[in-house]
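Entry 14. Two folds queued back to back today. First construct below, sequence then structure tokens.
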Amino acid sequence: MPELPEVEVTRRGIEPHIVGRAVQRVEIRTQQLRWPVPQDLQALLGHRVIERVDRRGKYLLLESDAGWVIVHLGMTGTLRVLPTGAALAMPGKHDHIDWVFDDWVLRFRDPRRFGAVLWHPRTSGDVHQHLLLAKLGVEPFSLAFNGALLYERTRGRSVAVKQVLLAGLIVVGVGNIYASESLFRAGIRPTTPAGRISLARYERLAEEIRATLAESIERGGSTLRDFVGGTGESGYFQLDYFVYDRAGVACRICGTPVRQIVQGQRSTYFCPSCQR
């Protein structure tokens, strides 16, 4: 599943190709994704200029003067820019939506159809108050995110720290891969009750979350299965994993075999020696 770095890589890839350009038309080939695609998306967005491309957590926000297209990539979704002629001539089976510009097509592809394309009109107010966005935690690169926030919001909580990160209610975008990697870098075992972690250790964890996400963005994200960025490039951060998907392999730091467990139906990877 694309996580925050992959979504940010996508945002940076498509932004220079569509911002300041008018949507000529919208072609919807599949109406039913995770939720129904608005049937009137063409009427809402046709001939309007895309003014900004923002990200909130794992959601992409394509802004026009009429409102915002909200895109979530789901588990297997990609959003890519392609030259208009070739793209329109040969859409694939899983190419569900095209935003056609003058020289480019912005194409949403999603083999499993767990992604989403929704509309939030400007008349409904700030897009960040949309039902899907309003309760999200703070952005990990914002000034509001620090160890003190993690510490304060976890007092008295017995749930495992990794599950707190995945919930996205304190900080957004720290999905399964980057939670495992950040906890390893911070030396914290993922099963540790969130309420038992000290302020000092949370300060270290906040630093490592930011560093891990930033490094992944610079490496183009993680290409697992079929993720590619907005212009079709693969990511390479998976080559730098310390623990994720390395069960039984020697820890890069101490040599102890990396262990795999299941938390909340998701695989967790950690080093039993480096993480206490």
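Second construct, same run, same settings:
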Amino acid sequence: MSEQPTTAPRKRTKPDWLKIKIPSGEVYSEVKQIVRTHKLHTICEDGKCPNMAECWGSGTATFMILGNICTRSCSFCAVATGRPNEYDQDEPKRVAEAIRLMKVKHAVITSVNRDELKDKGAGVWAATIREVKSVNPGVTMETLIPDFKAQWDLLETVVCEKPEVVSHNMETVERLYRIVRPQAKYERSLEQIKRTKSLGLRTKSGIMLGLGETEQEVYKAMDDLLENGCDVLTLGQYLQPTRMHLEVAEYVSPEMFLRYKQAGEQKGFSIVESGPMVRSSYHAEKHI
């Protein structure tokens, strides 16, 4: 008796509300040229952000410092994993100059994890914030920072430079951490937000949906964030960057995103950005 052929699981079809605009336009080209000329990295490109066309087309970009190779291997992230090169001491100056040329009013900066460095990159972070503020008086700033492996003195090194918003993403619910963020810890990230808030900073975090979480788990994550002092929350749809990354478990409907937004506002967040295309830096200028 011959074996019956097995049927491969059907790949989930991306719904119409997740169609991505192709980057184009004069302003987009100018931003791209500035980034290239100053030899900078952006999470927009390295993270394959679906909002790159909208953001770059309006003259904004999220800069990624400390290189474009991360020491962690999160199963959702498109940024390359490996052993990073030596970081560039002049990078803070180039970031500050690019922000000046782009005439940015609110700058968003993130970084890869540099766990191999003694200070986990905190020194470069602090230097970048100082340089941006020096070269661009009046510019406000959001910093999307790592957990620094719970070395809280390094966290203080960064946040004591007083960026207007300090963001640290939870990324997912507690149950999925070992799958989604195997080198991170749910409680460590909450502690990072709590300590940032205790230093008087405006705090922000983000969660991806569609990784297999339940509605109640999302509400639990909201409660945990609020209990630890989070002010601003972003919720967006996870999109698989390559076939090597986690598959999408569910495409969450716009109606469900609205439901989460309303729930988050009722629970007490000062701002909730919730929608399929929302990412950490989406509408960041409104979160001060």
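Quick look at the second one. The CA atoms of residues 75 and 180 lie 5 Å apart. Confidence is low (pLDDT under 50) at residues 1-9, 43-48.
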